[in-house]
């Protein structure tokens, strides 16, 4: 018999192993080991003295240790690509990924672990991280997609349409917006799964300029839309079916010109950030920089206008809401530092200590960007990322490659920070250190 009580024997590539049903149960029912166990996680009877598996024994040993202890130790002699391939066979990729991640913490020095050189013909314009540590990066009309193992998948080509925004609906799906619409693509194959359409005020829109997007609860996808005759608004689609479920129409320009959207779960609201000055008409000022849209009654709950003066510190460039702190963190176009607005009753910005960078990033096509991730604020300025923590948001960590290449975009996912550098057309991958193996 291949089992005795709770124990089971394996012969993997000629190497013998013995383990227990309890250890195998931690792999989960969808793993290679799931069929060996019954509904009560007990071993099923089988006649062979041992289970033969024609795979790599060194990797199997690593997986057994991972299932026993929850810790991942990879000997130097085992290539990680080989380990990932074997983990895929056994259905243990999620276990390997979870154990490999360190805890994202601004008090811990992160490491520059990888650099990805672009093969695109055009400069990279944006990068978006997935929740599991993969990423996608846009180069002109092409989106290059990488999984959490940093393996490149087939690219998404929009046929000469410039990419306006990209985002992960889930680890298997990427949404891309462009001047002639938007679609949802399979992240593994690059194939189009859904092409989104817009119906507004009783008529079907053949083409629309889709802009910044975000993802809400119940698999909802939001995107700004500029329609014909300067009609604008925000479209809402079901990510599962690709069908439009709502459209918030606005005859004036601001919503269609928003440069950032953010879904807020607690209030079922949408935060829209709009640059104070129109790109098409520099003498025209929009009525607000920030607005909060209540999705229940489709009304603006509040709006806030900073100064349209190009040299003013009140001219907000980027913003991110922190629901757990009832604050909005903002940054402007030219200064290093952060400002804060009350999320419920925005009045004036409370700026922290700041200094001029001394360099005009906009001449390089780069602007400061602020993100909020796992209770920490991150700000890109020039060629480095600052990580802020605590009630007073004190800078705790500075990430800098050292070659002076400006950061034109960055994104955070899993335990990684991805920084896209403009002139070098290079993407750096920063990772939290893995927990020590004792």
TrEMBL record:
Pathway entry: Protein modification; protein ubiquitination
What SMART domains does its record include? BTB
Q: Which residue numbers delimit the BTB domain?
A: 6-76
What the entry lists under PROSITE patterns is as follows: BTB
Gene3D superfamilies on file: Potassium Channel Kv1.1, Chain A
Its GO biological process annotations read: protein homooligomerization
Pfam family membership, one: Beta_prop_At2g24240
Q: What is this protein called?
A: BTB domain-containing protein
This protein's species is: Trapa incisa
